[in-house]
Amino acid sequence: MEQGALGERRQPAVFITGAGGEVGHGLISSFSDEGRPDIVATDLRELDHKSREKCAATYLADVCDRDALDRILSMYQVKEMFHLAAVLSTRAEFAPEIAHQVNVNGTVNILQIAAEQGRMYGEPVKVVFPSSIAAYGFGSLSQKKEVGAVSEYVHCKPSTMYGCNKLYCEHLGRYYAHSYRQLATDSVQGKDKNRGVVDFRCVRYPGLISAETVPTGGTSDFVPEMIHAAARGEKYKCFVREDTRIPFMTMPEAIDATLQLAAAPREELTQIVYNISSFSPSAGEVATIVKQYFPSADISFEPDERRQAIVDSWPESLDCNAATNDWGFTPKYTLEQAFEEYLIPRITKQYESKA
Length: 355
Ligand code: AKB
Fold this sequence. Notes:
Helices cover 43% and strands 17% of the residues. It has helices at 22-33, 49-54, 66-73, 89-92, 96-121, 141-147, 161-178, 222-232, 251-263, 283-293, 305-312, 321-327, 335-354; strands spanning 11-17, 39-43, 57-60, 76-83, 125-132, 149-150, 198-205, 207-209, 236-238, 248-250, 273-275, 299-301, 317-318.
């Protein structure tokens, strides 16, 4: 990977971890469209050529490797970090301890670096962190259906390692933002150098649907997988029941909302964590609309009991009022509009150009 130049002065940069994932891909494109020249991106694997071209520098680095992060960050003046690196819910259930290392220890590394840099600059370093609907957990399907839309601070009893990790990291972010080293000697006598050194902001994503990329390792993957399989003319066996319902939004909406939260004035934010989502279709409703656009789509429902249980523990829909009131979040698309205006035109073009 291209190496960032070691200059006399530290170059200003926006720092992205897990940049090779779906959200990283969208975020880099969005920053580049805005003409930002200062993107510094890291991932375990090399980024694709198009993403690399949009960045000032890219590095192969593991978020668990504190020395590697320190080496990279010593070259930059970072005031904003988007910490996207994570092991998603399905993959995490095969290797929970590794997921914990990446999802929790990686986040502690980022928060600690942000705190150190914030102290050094004498102003807060912004850490934007995607959490997930996996932070919720219902004990039964009947309870999930009874409750309907959930707000941020109820029913947070996750059943997956990924969900536990996300929920805990939300709390860690709050701790670094408000209580970091609260009893340390440099925190006494009214000279609190640690308080407010990290400006932590968090969105809880629903399932995300991108026209450009297909997710791997998640449990909300059935919707994007179904759409991309139909566009490629492939059969799709959906691993959840037809009546399964969780919230979703398109990738561009998720990226826009994340950037909107990042840009919101600190004083307008009344909480650390914000739900966002656009629509809550059942898997069957998605299959119906997919077949309208791809009449020969071959979709069957063959639930995998264990993945089904994970999806059944996630809420049907999200109450996004806090995001709307505090920083103006509004969904752009209904499910139908998402297909008509974003997914179908982009997916069709993408697979045509690959044919
Ligand atoms: C997953 O399925 O693990 C993710 C998520 C809902 O956070 N897409």
